[in-house]
Amino acid sequence: MKKIVFISAVLYFMATALHAQDFLKRSEVHGSFETDVMFYQPDNALGITDSTINGNNFGFNAFADIIYTLDNFSAGFRYEAYLPPIAGFDTQLEGQGFPYLWATYNTEKYSFTVGNFYEQFGNGLVLRTYQEWSLGYDNSINGVRVVAEPVKGLIFKGVYGTQRYYWSKWEKNGRGVVKGVDAELNFNDVFKFMSDAKLQLTLGGSAVSKYQADNNPFYKMPKNVGAFAGRFNIGIGKFNFTSEYAYKINDPSAVNNYIYKDGQGFIFTGSYSTTGLGVFAMFKRYDNMSYKSDQAVTGNALDINYLPALTEDHTYMLAAMYPYATQPNGEIGFQVQVNYKIPKKTWLGGKYGTGIEINYSQINDIDRQKVNDTTGINQNGTLGYTSEFFKFGKTIFNRDLTVKIDKKFSKNLKGIYTYINQQYNQDVVLGHTGEPNVFAHIGVIDMTYKFTSKKALRVELQGLWTKEDKQDWAALMFEYTISPHWFFSIADQYNYGNDIAEDRLHYYTGSFGYTYKTTRVSVTYGRQREGVVCVGGVCRQVPASNGFSITLSSNF
Amino acid sequence: MKIRYLLLLVLAAVVVFNSCEKVDPPYIENVDYCSGDKKVLLEDYTGHQCVNCPTAALLAHTLQDDFCDRVVIMAVHAGYFAQPTSDPLFSSDYRTEAGNTWDTFFGNGAQGNPNGLVNRIPINDNYVISPGNWGTAIAPLLQQPAEAKMLIKNEFNSSTKKLTTKVTTTFLESMEGNIQLLVCLTQDSIVSAQKNNNPDAGQTPVEENYVHMHMLRTTLNGNWGESVNGGNTVSNGDVFVKEYTLEFKEEWIPKNCHIVAFIYHESNKNVIQVEESPVLN
Questions:
Q1: Cα Rg, chain A, nearest whole Å
Q2: In this predicted model, what pLDDT tens digit does every residue of A52-69 receive, in sequence order?
Q3: ipTM of the complex model
Q4: DSSP 8-state class, residue A85
C-alpha cells in the first residue's frame, strides 16, 4: 500500500514538474524600470537657501513596470515611489505602492481586462486615459474593459470603472464612476468591394458618461454627465482628412466656475503628402470641454478626456521657454505646416538636398457673449455665456511662427537652423495674472560634426529676445557622443538681458550618460531655471533649483 | 456582421445615453440659509494689480446675498499683486502685517490670486480655495449649528478718534484646546485703482476709481489674536468678554469701517464663529 502511495506521489510530482516546465517555457516576463533622483543645494542667486530647502534636499521618483504573459493571458503591475516627489511634481504624489494592477485575456475576437487600464476613444475628446511619467500624470481607469472585433475592421470597446487620483482609494460617494462605449468601422476592411478602393474610410462614434453623487450643498449638480463624439478618417490618394466632433451635456465644476453650459469640441485635420512635399493643416475649437470624474477637482488629475494640442512642440532649451497649455474652458485655433525638401544637386538643395519646414499656429479665446443683460460672463450658477461657433475671440493665447531649415554640408557636417516668432499669453496660459503678453524672437543654430562613424560633436547656439518677462537670453550647448555608450554635455542659459541686473544669471549644467544595451544611467549637475514642462498641451510648473540629478532606466 | 453584436452595442449605447441629466434653472439649491446663527468668514486674498480679482469680489458679494448675509467678507490685500508700484495709480500699499503673515502661513499668494479661505478650513489638505469653490465650501458650514455666539459692541470717540471694542463670546457647546479671538478692522468704499478684466466690475484693463470693499486695515490684538480660554475646556454657556482699543489713522473713515471678530481653534486654525459690526452704530 505504501509503495502504491509512494509511486503515485512520484508520478504526480513528475507530471507536475513536466507541466511546470511546459508552463515556464510558455511564460514570458518583461519589464522596465526608471529611477530619478534629485539632490538639491542652496543657491542664493535663485533665492534658494538652507531655510527654504528646510531639510528637503532630496527628491526621488521611481517606477517599475512588470508584465507577465502566458499564451492569451497577460497580467502586470506598476510600482511607483515618490519619496518625496521631485520639486515641481504634485505633492499629493508623495508615497509609494502599486497603483496599477491588471490582468487581460485575449482571444482572436475579444479582449477582457480587469484592473487598471489605459484606453482612448478616437482622438480622446470624450475619453482618453494615459500615463505621462515626466508630468507625474496618470488617469488610468480601475475597472473592466472589453474589446471585441467580431469581424476585421469593426471594433467595439466598452469601459467601466473609477479613475486613479494619486493614492486616494475610491470611496462610495467620492469621485465619479466612468462608463463608455466606442465603435469604429473601417469600411475597407469590412466591405470586400472597398478592400482595394482608392478611398480609405473609417467612421467611429463614442458615448461616455460619469456618475458622481451630488454632495454639493450649494449647486444642483447633474449626477450623470454624458459626452458623445463622432469621427471620420478619409484618405484619398495623397490626401487625408480626419475630424471629430464631441458634445458634452451640462457639467458644472470647479474648473468652469460651476456654469451649466454644454460643452463642445471639434477638430479637423487635412494633409497632403507627396515626394518632397508635405502639407498639414488643423483647426480646432474647444468650448467648456473640461471633463473630469470629480467636479471639485482642478489641475492635472481625473481627466476623463484629452484635448489634443495644436501648437508646435519645441524641444530646444530657449524655444521651450513658453510652451502652450491647452485651455479646456475655451480656445479656438488653427495650425498650418509645410515641409519641403529642395532636391539635391540643385542650386539651393546643394549636394544633399535641403529640408524646409514652416509652421504657423494661432490660438485665441473663443467668442463669449452674455446670456442676458443681468448675468456676467462665466458667472457661476448660470449658463455662463453664449458663443458663436467659428468666431475667434479677441484675446490671443498663443501665436507661433517657426521656420526650420536642415542642411547637410558634407558627409560629416550637418546643421539645423530655426527661427521662431512667438506671442504668448502668460496671464492665461501660466496663470501669471496681469503679466503682459510675451513677444519673442528665438533663433537656434544646431550643428553636428561627425569625427568618425561613432564620435560626434553637436553644438547648439540659441538666442531669445523679448522686452517682456525676463527679457533676453542666450544659450550654448556642447554635446559629445561616443556611440553607442557615452555622451557628455555642457550647457549654459544666460539671462543676459534681464532688466534687473542681479537677475542676469547663468543657468549652467553639465551631464554625462552611459548606455549599455537597454540600461542607461545619466548624471546632471547644475541649475534648473524656473519654467513649465508640457507634453501634448498638458503642463506642470518647474521651480528653479540647483543640484545633482541621477537617472537610471532599464528594460528587459 | 452578427446581429447580436449590433444589439449589444445598441444596448450599451442606450445605457450610456440614459446616463445624462439636464439640470434646469435655478441652478442653486433652494435651501433656506436665513435661519441659523452660524456665520462663515470668507477671506478674499486680493491685490490691486490682480486683473481677475474684481470678478472674485463680485462673486463674494453674490454669495453674501445667496447666503442671507451670513457670510462675513474680509478682503486681504497681500502677495505679489498687492505690492505698490512706481506707477502713481498703484503706489498705494494696502498690505497689512497680519495679512502678509496669513498669506505666508496659508500660502494664498504662492497659489496665485484670486483665492480665499473659508473659515480657515482646508479642503483636500489645502486651506486655499479658488473662487469657484467658495460657495461649495460655505454652504455646508452654514447648515451646521452655531457653536458660539459673538456680540460686538463698538464705541467710537470722534474727538480722540479712539475706538473701544468689546467682544462677548458665549459658547453653545463644550470644546477643548486653546481658542483664540482675533479682532480686525475692515474698511469699505476706498476708491483706488484696480486692474480689471471684467466689464461688470468696471473699466478694463484698469478701473481708476474702483471701490474697494471689506479691506482689512489692521488687527486689534496681533496677527493671531489672543486666547479666550487660556487652554481650559469650555462648556455650554461659558461667557468670555474681551475689550480692545484702537486709535484711528487719518485714512480710516469711521463711517466706512467695521470690526470683524472671530474665534478659532489654535491647533488647526479652523474658525468657530465670526461676527461683524460697524464702528459707528
A1: 27
A2: 777 778 999 999 999 999
A3: 0.78
A4: P
